[in-house]
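Support reply, case 0932

Customer input (verbatim):
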Amino acid sequence: MIESFLINYLKSQGFDAALERQKGIDIILDKTGGQLNDHQFLHTFAIQTYGSSKAKAADLSYKVMQAMLDMPDKTTRVVDVLLNAGPYDFTDTSTKEYRYQAVYEIYEY
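Our regenerated output:
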C-alpha cells in the first residue's frame, strides 16, 4: 500500500506522518486520486503540514517538499515525484489551525 510506504519513507527522513490528524502528528497524507497505465501507478497526494504559526506550517511544508522531491533518488519503488501545486496556505478555518498544503504526483512501478 503506497500510503504505508510514504509514511515509512517520511519517518526515515525524520518526519512523523499519518493518514489522519492525531496529537503530535503535524504531517497528514491524503490520497486524492490515482490511476494505472502500462504497469505504472500514478498516485496523487495532498500533504498537509500543521504548525503553531503560519510560518512554522510553511517551513515544515518546504522541508517535506524537499524530502518528497528527493524520494526517487532514495528509493527504488518510486521513479518520479512531481509537485503539482503548492506549497500554499491552507489554514483550517474550522479548527483555527495553521496549515499548509502541497499536491504531489507520485509515480511507481
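We compared this against your earlier run and they match. Two observations from our side: The mean pLDDT is 94. The first helix runs from residue 2 to 12. Please reopen the case if you see a mismatch on your end.
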